[in-house]
Amino acid sequence: MSITPSFQPVVPKLKRYTMETLLSRGVRLDGRKLDEVRSIEIVPGYIERAEGSALVKLGQTVVLAGIKTDIVAPFPDTPNEGVLVVHAEFVPLASPTFEPGPPDENAIELARVIDRSLREIKAVALDKLVLEPGKHVWRVFVDIYVLNHDGNLFDASMLAAMAALLSARLPTAVKTENGYQVDRSKYTMILPVNHRVVTVTIAKVAGKLIVDPTYEEEQVADTRMVVAVSEDGRIAGIQKTGMGDLDYREVLTAVSIALNKASVYHRVLEDIVLPYRAKLEEEMKAETPGEEQQPPPPPPKEHEEPVEATEVVDEAVQEADESGNE
């Protein structure tokens, strides 16, 4: 049963007026520019007993993600693929508006946005997680816990999920008479990942589009749009939240901003998480000399010729201008 928080803080009119006045001058309440992202910290491997984990701090927003695996039967329509499950939980201590109990619709929305962003672009190589086609495959749980809410849970949670997946290892699958058992005393391979994906959240406040909104900015925002972008510049998903609207030009502008600012998040993953993943691979090779890990999977065929999204946006803006002139 869903529980919708009934208490929402009220932003004083004076603060709202100050915020909107500063935005009209291109400045935000915390001193950032409209398209500036807050400081980012990532700690991969934060939970020792998890298959993979990461703690992410985006400004004052803190999110923890963990990876757990087991062996199950595949879905009937995908007998040659592993299973990916994303779950998000808003811990009550993270915000006065979070209530104890089952995940509410906001937590469900967060999990679904991250799930779709990972699934549609085949970020995790599920075809490499098959033990016996149609019978036994690995199931990968991505558990996301919001520990402190100061705005922009989508970007912080996506970063945490991606960092946890990149730092995850698969334990040993032991064949038995009844199927397989998981031996967590020994890891056999790094979780295969095809693509890295991040999300960029853009809020509309007083007619201005701002990146990485804080909690206060989200309270006065008309609407938000979340754009998932892969490391090679492809759009992996788009989600609009809130009751307000965005016109066609604002959507194109928001997408263009997201494609540009996604590099900030990807750079942090490259600088902090990829070296950690490489270190794990070296440690596993040292522990299992003579055993070769599975090679990285090739990229999906349907994405062999990626479309330059920035060019698509520019063309769409040009078409909008032409139609407006008519």
UniProtKB/TrEMBL annotation:
User: Which GO cellular component does the record give, naming just one?
Assistant: cytoplasmic exosome (RNase complex)
Under Gene3D superfamilies, the record lists: GHMP Kinase, N-terminal domain (3.30.230.70)
Query: What name goes with this protein?
Result: Exosome complex component Rrp42
The role this protein plays is: Non-catalytic component of the exosome, which is a complex involved in RNA degradation. Contributes to the structuring of the Rrp41 active site.
Write out the entry's keywords from A to Z.
Cytoplasm, Exosome
Q: Does the keyword Cytoplasm apply?
A: yes
- InterPro entries in the record: ExoRNase_PH_dom1, ExoRNase_PH_dom2, ExoRNase_PH_dom2_sf, Exosome_comp_Rrp42_subfam, PNPase/RNase_PH_dom_sf, Ribosomal_Su5_D2-typ_SF, Rrp42_archaea
